[in-house]
Design goal:
The complex is a heterotrimer of chains A (319), B (376) and C (290).
Chain A lengths: L1 H21 L3 H26 L7 H19 L3 H23 L4 H21 L1 H4 L5 E2 L5 E2 L2 E2 L3 H23 L2 H11 L1 H6 L4 H27 L1 E2 L6 H14 L4 H17 L7 H15 L10 E3 L5 E3 L4
Antiparallel strand pairs in A: 1-4, 2-3, 5-6
Chain B lengths: L1 H24 L8 E8 L6 H20 L7 E8 L4 H13 L3 E5 L4 H13 L3 E4 L14 E3 L4 H14 L4 E7 L2 H13 L6 E8 L7 H8 L5 E5 L2 H13 L5 E4 L6 H7 L7 E4 L8 H14 L5 H20 L3 H9 L4 E3 L2 E5 L5 E2 L3 E6 L2 E4 L2
Parallel strand pairs in B: 1-2, 1-3, 3-4, 4-5, 6-7, 6-8, 8-9, 9-10
Antiparallel strand pairs in B: 10-14, 11-12, 12-13, 14-15
Helix pairs in contact in B: 2-11, 3-4, 5-6, 8-9, 11-12
Chain C lengths: L1 H29 L6 H17 L5 H24 L8 H22 L14 E4 L2 E4 H23 L1 H11 L1 H6 L4 H27 L6 H16 L4 H21 L5 H15 L14
Classes of the chains: A mainly alpha (319), B alpha/beta (376), C mainly alpha (290).
Chain lengths: 319, 376, 290
């Protein structure tokens, strides 16, 4: 019952948060919303890196594709946000599929570089394809979502929306991962040859991972576009991909809740440490190296998973 | 499951930290004894030098008023926040400022994209934002509370096109930064060129941070222009000039006020000799306020100020004047600014139009013997 | 214009080649991509700046000092951030490398600030014109010095005992160890040489563009890696070939197609090569042993 009480308390806090904070501080509402966005991003990336074991570096590109798709649809075609959100997600998922298909043959390090390259190419397209994206000038004036005639105007509405999206993302990905698909991915991650030899086709699942990761990044992107009402290429750079990667690593690859934790840590800490912000990147770099040396599975990562012959995962000793 | 419990504990911990910090944060209410003005600029990141210029300019303005007793006995404090030149970070910074009730107005941001991204935030909370440097045309419509003390790219490029004709250029090549800034300049100059009988022989873009212009310059050399218009900042301009020299190109250079900086001279040395640029900030010329500002800047920071420091100084001074006259209140700062006419400052005489844009006239400058001087 | 572009392309290609050597040597032995290598190049450049400006030493001394210090830095990084992870999953040292890269950039920014700094030397400004091509002194230095360094490395690796030991280690780490080679030392040596070469490249670039800044390692690193892959990663002549080729392709593509999309073209080449022929032009096809 302990568990239920805790969950209830957390849920209550999360729901009541805007009422506690909203009138007090726009800023912390903004931080919570950012945590929400990055949670979705890092959960998506976790599917690719943590579960399928693919070292993908260009995740910010998917985020960007989602954002730009949503922005363009909202500005130019006056569609409802609720229609645009799934469209953006699907489009981005499609790009995930496109990227995944050729690159899955590559090994870890090469894969990283290629995905990084993809990320950069996408960003450069955002910057240079001025006719469509207005390049570095960005797309301002994105209309806010409307629900039953009420237009979103304050942080509170966006907060509840992102809360809902985070929960949906968590539940959906969790379901997928605890189903046969997820277990197959883990099998592939642990030993690709073995997986193939028992009839699991690695390529199919790797592509699936990319598609899922990209799909949710698209959701995050669409939300971002509507929330900030302005999209520009400098939100989707290499360093942003590294940031999302760090969130996955810190929280524990292979653990969805960890991704949320990682997102929270990496969004809040710079704010708390604003006065030493020049050291922020330095500490981040150091933290990544130290984590790899001492705790490569992250704070909440799995300790050591053992797989038995039937593809079922068991937690090993030391847990 | 242990996982869920850890999740819950973790989340609660974070929420608690967040809430506690939020409460402690807000004890900086308007009951403080200082007058707080926000400054949003890239203090770190690739554009940190411009952020530092902003910071110095603003802090100088504050220091000067503080020396003479502050405003109504209260000292003016510049609250600096780093937006890293990134529109994401900028929005976070904007939210922070807006939540802090003691911040009366904000000087910032640097990049037009940051200013555009944050304008909705400032406008919604009805707090004034004056940008010293965001020159993209889009900022005109950014909002009622968004002002700027720099003219738009449209104005500068247009003026430059006229001057190009006066200088006798008939063929001009354009090298521009692939950014809101560069593209803005490109578009307007291209449009204004035909009426000034100027043929655009080539337009080449470069990505910000690019160092190698040899390919671009080689292409341009083949088209034989009289001059090259650089739509970018002084760092790249210096590199372009040097590399052009290395390629043996015999060509003149023109640009806008983003070129005005000691760094241009330092990085470019010989190769930037005879560079022509328009500037709104020129110490040692007709504007006594500019000269005065430069002297004080030199005394305080031991270096010469660039255009951005001057703009920041002017923006901050305007806010300080508003507070002096109308009191420490967010809304009255806006009403003051709406009525600014013929304000004499370090960057010339300026007035705000109904969109918060500034109307003023630049000087024509050039580099002679390693120094900036008035041209003609 | 064509020959001019070719000259420019060759120049930048040599730089890519020098940096690519570092990637290729490390990859050959450890099979990891040292993401931080581009930033080592950057530090080498700043160190050169430091020696020239603060200590006012002559240019060739700056080269030597910078190369030595950067080599030490490379070895230290290997010891601290990669060696403890030798037994771990492939992905772990890669992430660690990312961390090192971020760390190095921040350190450079903290020490030297974020602005672009000029290189305080008047060397290299003279230009010569041969036909329709203008070439500057620094370009000549780059071409000549790079060739010398590469030839030197080639001879070292092929003819000396240590060089052969290094080659053995890159063919098979375990076999080399069985033969009595101190593999750790070979690894350190690979890092040292790679870093030293990168430092030389950094100084030459500093003079050529007259600008150094903390994030200069990023693009250079990616381009150099592309060059290494193009030529065949793990192969030293491959890195040289790849570098020159990439430089030429970039210059010509920039000239005749588009300058803005220059980087896109580099990445596209990288991706295509990796997909079609991951072993590169001169690389050996790797057999994935079960």
């Amino acid at each position: 019952m302990n568990r239920k009480v805790l969950t209830f308390i957390v849920a209550a806090l999360l729901l009541a948060l805007p009422l506690l904070l909203g009138s007090v501080s726009e800023f912390w509402m903004h931080v919570m919303i950012m945590i929400g966005i990055f949670s979705i991003l890092s959960m998506g990336l976790n599917v690719i890196i943590g579960y399928a074991g693919q070292f993908a570096l260009g995740h910010a590109a998917f985020y960007g594709i989602g954002a730009y798709t949503a922005a363009l649809l909202l500005i130019n075609y006056d569609l409802s946000f609720w229609l645009v959100l799934p469209i953006a997600a699907v489009v981005t998922g499609f790009f995930g599929f496109l990227l995944g298909t050729p690159v899955i043959r590559l090994r870890g390090d090469y894969l990283g570089i290629v995905t990084l390259g993809f990320g950069e190419i996408v960003r450069l397209i955002f910057v240079n394809w001025v006719d469509v994206t207005r390049g570095p000038m960005g797309l301002p004036g994105i209309p806010a979502p409307k629900l039953f005639g009420y237009t979103f105007s304050g942080k509170i509405e966006f907060y509840y929306l992102i809360l809902v999206l985070v929960i949906i993302t968590y539940i959906v990905i969790n379901r997928i991962l605890h189903s046969g698909i997820g277990l197959n991915m883990l099998t592939i991650r642990e030993d690709e040859r073995l997986a193939a030899s028992i009839g699991i086709r690695p390529n199919k699942y790797k592509i699936m991972a990319f598609t899922i990761g990209a799909f949710f990044a698209g959701i995050a992107g669409a939300f971002w576009a509507a929330y900030i009402s302005y999209v520009s290429p400098d939100a989707f750079r290499y360093m942003d991909s590294v940031n999302i990667l760090a969130m996955v690593i810190l929280g524990g690859s292979g653990n969805l809740a960890g991704s949320i934790l990682g997102a929270s840590i990496l969004v809040i800490t710079p704010e708390l440490l604003r006065y030493v912000s020049e050291y922020r990147m330095l500490l981040l770099g150091l933290a990544i190296v130290l984590m790899m040396i001492f705790k490569p599975t992250g704070f909440w990562g799995e300790k050591h998973r053992k797989l038995n012959f039937y593809g079922k995962a068991q937690k090993g000793e030391g847990k | 499951m242990k996982q869920k419990r850890k999740l819950s504990i973790g989340l609660i911990a974070i929420l608690l930290i967040g809430i506690l910090s939020a409460c402690s944060n807000n004890s900086g209410s308007s009951e403080s004894n200082t007058i707080r003005i926000g400054l949003a600029a890239p203090i770190s990141g690739t554009q940190a030098q411009y952020g530092t210029a902003f910071k110095n300019g603003a802090e100088l303005a504050a220091a000067q008023i503080n020396e003479s007793g502050g405003i109504d006995g209260k000292q003016v404090e510049i609250v600096v926040s780093d937006d890293k030149g990134d529109s994401n970070e900028a929005v976070t910074v904007a939210n922070k400022f807006v939540s802090d009730k003691s911040i009366l107005a904000v000087v910032g941001h640097f990049n037009s994209s940051a200013t555009l991204a944050t304008a909705p935030v400032y406008n919604k909370s009805k707090i004034v934002q004056i940008s010293p440097s965001s020159s993209a045309p889009g900022v005109t419509d950014a909002g009622e509370y968004t002002y700027r003390v720099i003219t738009t790219d449209a104005f500068q490029a247009d003026y430059l096109a006229d001057w190009s004709k006066e200088l006798g250029y008939s063929k001009v090549a354009l090298i521009y930064e692939q950014s809101d800034f560069g593209i803005g300049l490109l578009d307007v100059y291209k449009q204004a060129a035909p009426e000034n009988n100027i043929e655009i022989t080539a337009t080449e873009a470069y990505n910000p941070g690019e160092k190698d212009f040899s390919t671009v310059l080689t292409k341009i050399k083949a088209t034989n222009p009289d001059a090259i218009f650089i739509g970018g900042f002084y760092n790249e301009a210096a590199l372009i000039a040097q590399q052009a020299q290395k390629l043996g190109m015999d060509v003149e250079f023109i640009g806008v006020d983003s070129l005005y900086s000691e760094a241009l001279l330092e990085l470019g040395q010989q190769s930037v000799e005879d560079f022509k640029l328009i500037g709104f900030f020129f110490p040692g010329g007709d504007n006594a306020k500019a000269t005065e500002f430069a002297e004080q800047y030199q005394a305080s920071y031991n270096s010469k100020p660039d255009t951005y420091a001057a703009y920041s100084y002017v923006a901050t001074s305007l806010i300080i004047d508003a507070i002096k006259e109308q009191g420490a209140d967010r809304e009255s700062i806006k009403t003051f600014l709406d009525q600014v006419k013929d304000y004499e400052g370090a960057t010339g005489t300026l007035s705000f139009d109904e969109n918060g844009d500034v109307v003023t006239v630049p000087s024509k400058l050039k580099v002679e013997n390693g120094e900036f001087v008035l041209s003609e | 214009m064509l020959f001019q572009q070719i000259t420019n392309g060759l120049t930048i290609g040599m730089i890519y080649a020098l940096i690519a050597l570092g990637y290729t040597m490390v990859y050959g032995i450890l099979k990891i991509v040292n993401f931080a290598h581009g930033d080592i190049y950057m530090i080498g450049s700043f160190l050169g700046l430091f020696f020239l400006k603060e200590l006012q030493v002559p240019l060739y001394v700056a080269f030597i000092f910078s190369a030595v210090v950067t080599a030490l830095l490379g070895v230290t990084i290997e010891r601290a951030a990669y060696r403890p992870l030798r037994k771990a999953d492939r992905i772990v040292p890669l992430i660690s490398a990312l961390g090192v890269s971020t760390f190095l950039i921040s350190v450079a920014q903290l020490i030297w600030g974020t602005e672009m700094r000029p290189f305080p030397t008047t060397f290299g400004a003279k230009i010569y014109t041969v036909g329709s091509v203008t070439i500057s002194e620094i370009q000549i230095l780059i071409l000549v010095l790079s060739c010398l360094l590469m030839v030197g490395l080639h001879l070292f690796v092929k003819k000396t005992k240590i060089g052969t030991a290094m080659r053995a280690t890159s063919i098979s780490l375990t076999n080399a160890a069985l033969l009595g080679i101190n593999t750790n030392r070979m690894i350190s040596l690979a890092f040292a040489i790679g870093s030293a070469l990168a430092a030389c490249a950094g100084i030459m670039v500093g003079i050529y563009y007259n600008a150094v800044y903390p994030t200069m390692g990023y693009m250079a690193g990616i381009n150099a890696f592309t060059a290494a892959v193009l030529g065949g990663i793990g192969s030293i002549p491959g890195a040289m070939l790849g570098g020159v080729l990439l430089g030429l392709v970039e210059a010509l593509a920039g000239a005749y197609i588009s300058t803005q999309y220059k980087s896109v073209i580099s990445f596209a080449i990288l991706i295509i090569v990796l997909l079609i022929r991951p072993s590169g032009i001169l690389g050996k096809k790797e057999i994935d042993k079960v």
